[in-house]
Design brief:
The protein has helices at residues 22-26, 44-57, 66-79, 125-129, 152-163, 206-217, 229-233, 265-278, and strands at residues 2-5, 8-11, 29-37, 40-41, 85-92, 110-117, 131-137, 168-173, 176-180, 184-189, 192-195, 221-224, 237-242, 246-253, 256-257. By secondary structure, the chain is of the alpha+beta class. Bound molecules: N-(5'-phosphopyridoxyl)-D-alanine.
């Protein structure tokens, strides 16, 4: 696989970053994930815009123009023959002698991009079955609106879910669901779609924003507000959204089976619309 590192396209074995990289030492970096369907990048502009915001919030520069970023994404997709898959973009504050204070301005950032081939990404059998989630306390830091590479707690959450035979975890704070380990969370009750309002408590999903737009265009009712795990367990249906899962139905939350235990009509329809409109 060819990857991009600091201005060069290299075979992955030859790509290197410093042991003093702040991404490694302090998780001082941000990332983006853009999906590819049929060789086409999905929602690229949205991901770039959020990247820009994440960098600004952390006092980092945007090291490349949007056109340059697009060119690198396209080159990797082509070079690695990605039909369906994901492109990861990672930017850290760069390498400097270990110090909590940021290095001086002008320290070169580390920029890495790599692809993951996921044949049939949009036709996953999971979407037909629906996934099972557990609820866990949200023990992440307070600025979840910044897409940083601090992903240890979400990894732990994923492992807690697996240990219980579930697929993912919904995180809960002050008795309200924030989001999934790497996705936004939704419930549907009496035809109304409910998902948490934007704030510092959740990542502002690019897929979320597109899906809510499509839902409103299709005259579906949307409420952006917090909901409790109890409300979720009594919902008619539930689903998650992200660049890697698009719209994925949820059929079980902890011990509660939703509806008849199969993906609900709203989640199915939104998945269809999202895939149709974005491809
Ligand atoms: N995760 N919330 C969290 C905590 C996330 O990590 C993600 C994305 C989302 C959904 O955002 P978007 O729709 O822009 O993908 C919400 C990516 C896919 C990941 O870490 O792999």
């Amino acid at each position: 696989r060819t990857v991009y590192v600091n201005g060069e396209f290299l075979p992955e074995e030859q790509a290197k970053v410093s042991v003093f990289d702040r991404g490694f030492l302090f998780a001082d970096g941000v990332y983006e994930v853009t999906s590819v369907l049929g060789g086409k990048l999905i929602d690229f502009a949205g991901h770039t815009k959020r990247l820009d915001r994440s960098l600004k919030e952390l006092g980092m520069e945007m090291p490349l123009t949007e056109d340059e970023l697009l060119g690198i994404h396209r080159h990797l997709v082509e070079e690695n023959g990605i039909e369906d898959g994901l492109v990861y973009l990672q930017i850290t504050r760069g390498a400097a002698d270990r110090d909590f204070a940021y290095p001086e301005a002008g320290t070169p950032q580390t920029v890495v991009l790599f692809t993951q081939a996921k044949p049939g990404l949009a036709d996953s059998p999971q979407a037909e079955r629906g996934i099972r989630v557990i609820t866990i306390p949200d023990e992440r830091w307070g600025r979840r609106d910044i897409k940083t590479v601090q992903l240890l707690y979400p990894s732990m959450g994923k492992m807690m879910a697996k240990a219980e035979g579930a697929d993912d975890a919904w995180m809960v704070e002050d008795d309200c669901v924030t989001e999934g380990t790497s996705n936004n969370a939704y419930i549907v009750k009496n035809g109304t779609i409910v998902t948490r309002h934007l704030g510092t408590e959740i990542l502002h999903g690019i897929t979320r924003s597109a899906v809510l737009r499509f839902a409103r265009e299709a005259q579906m009712k949307v409420e952006e507000r917090a909901f409790t795990p109890d409300e979720a367990k009594e919902a008619d249906e539930a689903f998650i959204t992200s660049a890697s899962s698009f719209v994925m139905p949820v059929v079980q939350i902890d011990e509660a089976t939703l509806g008849d235990g199969t993906p609900g009509p709203v989640a199915r329809r939104l998945r269809e619309i999202y895939l149709e409109e974005s491809r």
